[in-house]
Design brief:
With 431 residues, the protein is an alpha+beta fold. The chain folds into two domains: 190 residues, Alpha-Beta Complex (Sulfite Oxidase, Chain A, domain 2), CATH 3.90.420.10; 126 residues, Immunoglobulin-like. The protein is 14% helix and 30% strand. The protein contains seven helices and 25 strands. The strands form seven sheets. The chain has a five-stranded mixed beta sheet with strand order 6-5-14-9-10. Strands 7, 8, 11, 12 and 13 form a five-stranded antiparallel beta sheet that branches. A hairpin with a 6-residue loop joins strand 9 and strand 10. The chain is globular.
């Protein structure tokens, strides 16, 4: 079935949807999986007597209740942490950290592992002193305290958040050898707050207002222009994340949430919203966060994060112990809506197989996919390709370069390739 594929604003018709896997092929794969499982079971049985020995931690009581008033992970998981960029930040307070996608399960990112991006450090804001102003082209300007905000009826939604610079290093070649480094400016959380439309309606929007200026209370006074249409659709101001109040690095006590939009527009430490007729042309949407094209022109206000996916296992963070059964796993997401399907290739894009989507499949949220795979031990190139509910198909890097040139940095949603060699080593490769 032909699908719509959009790359950098171009629309082309292409027949990229993989045909259903024949029943005989599935049965053959299943037989291989059963044989592999039988071998593993035999190995486990031979070690059963060793595993039945009473370990030290069964011989005495463990730590008492409330050893940690705020729970912490096991010390055996100490390597599962956010990591910074390869180079130090250019300015004091600026910088970012990356989510260890290769070590996570499900679609919710633990709060302590959600990526960070700051332009002037993390402000220490007293929620009792914080205010949110709504002004400009409104009939009734408002100044809300945090107590005022939490009194409004709330919503809780699960959405991904992705920096538009995610995978930006990959424009010119395979540069880093980790899912965390290539795709780690990405997280997905449950957010709780108040629909922005409710606050704007209370303020009384005036005719002619088309844009909002959202400004944060950090040292950079981070500010972006937001279309009023988005504000009245699914935007909300969030004060909680994953069931608890926002943490300082994520915007405490209040942030803007624009589902599906590039991370920079989701203003943290939100202090004011101004309604106006036109975009406010802030620093972050003129000199920054634009997409330079091959002809020297730049795309501006490219808000939506297009359909994208990445295989998180096997990936460069892992090593395959030998030929046999593995489950290919990964993540897919789209700022346009829900993921409709994900296809996986083990031969560098020559053939594709449909992966299984793991529930829940939510709009503008991470979606898990999986595919049974028996590795023969031969060299392979693993890829995944997402299609969202609008019919948009994740493009190859070649198509993206043809459409936008090689000078871009933001909005790289190209298909990612992992090369597997005969030793089971996995590398970031471009094909």
């Amino acid at each position: 079935m032909a699908q719509k594929q959009e790359v950098g604003g171009d629309v082309a018709s292409t027949s990229l949807r993989a045909a259903p896997v024949p029943r005989r092929k599935w049965l053959k794969s299943a037989a291989a999986v059963v044989a592999t499982g039988a071998g593993l079971a035999a190995n486990r049985t031979s070690r059963a007597s060793e595993s039945l020995a009473v370990p030290p931690w069964m011989r005495a009581p463990g730590d008492p209740v409330l050893s940690h008033p705020y729970g912490v992970p096991s010390h055996f998981e100490a390597s599962v942490v956010r990591r910074g960029p390869p180079a130090p930040p250019a300015f004091p307070g600026a910088g970012f950290s990356l989510t260890p996608l290769q070590d996570l399960f499900g679609i919710i990112t633990p709060t302590g592992l959600v990526f960070e991006r700051h332009h002037a450090g993390i402000p220490d804001i007293d929620p009792k002193e914080h205010r949110l102003a709504i002004h400009g082209m409104v009939d009734r300007p408002r100044l809300y305290t945090m107590d005022d905000i939490v009194r409004f009826p709330s919503v809780s939604r699960i959405h991904f958040l992705e920096c538009s610079g995610n995978t930006g290093w990959e424009w010119s070649g395979a540069t880093v050898q980790s899912v965390q480094q290539t795709h780690g400016l990405l997280s997905c959380c449950e957010w709780t707050g108040v629909p922005l439309a409710v606050l704007l309606e209370e303020a009384g929007l005036q005719l002619g207002g088309k844009w909002l200026l959202a400004e944060g209370a950090d040292g950079a006074a981070m500010a972006r222009s937001i279309p009023l249409e988005k504000a009245m659709d699914d935007a909300f101001v969030a004060y909680a994340q994953n069931g608890e109040r926002l943490r300082p690095e994520h915007g405490y006590p209040l942030r803007l949430l624009l589902p599906g939009y590039e991370g920079n527009t989701n203003i943290k430490w939100l202090r004011r919203i101004k309604v106006g007729k036109e975009p406010f042309m802030t620093r972050e949407e003129t000199s920054k966060y634009t997409d330079l094209q091959a002809d020297g022109m730049a795309r501006q206000f490219t808000f939506v994060m297009e359909a994208k996916s990445v295989i998180t296992f096997p990936a460069p963070d892992h090593h395959l112990a030998g030929p046999g059964f593995y489950e290919i796993r990964g993540l897919a997401w789209s700022g346009r809506g829900a993921i409709r399907c994900v296809d996986v290739s083990t031969d560098g894009g020559q053939t594709w197989q449909p992966a299984q989507l793991q529930e829940p499949v939510l709009a503008k949220a991470l979606t898990r996919f999986r595919l049974p795979w028996v590795w023969s031990g031969a060299p392979m190139v693993l890829q995944s390709r997402a299609t969202d509910e609008t019919g948009y198909v994740q493009p190859s890097l070649l198509r993206l370069l043809d459409a936008r040139g090689s000078h871009s940095y933001y909005h790289n949603n190209a298909i990612q390739s992992w090369g597997v060699d005969v030793q089971g080593e996995i590398r970031n490769v471009h094909v």
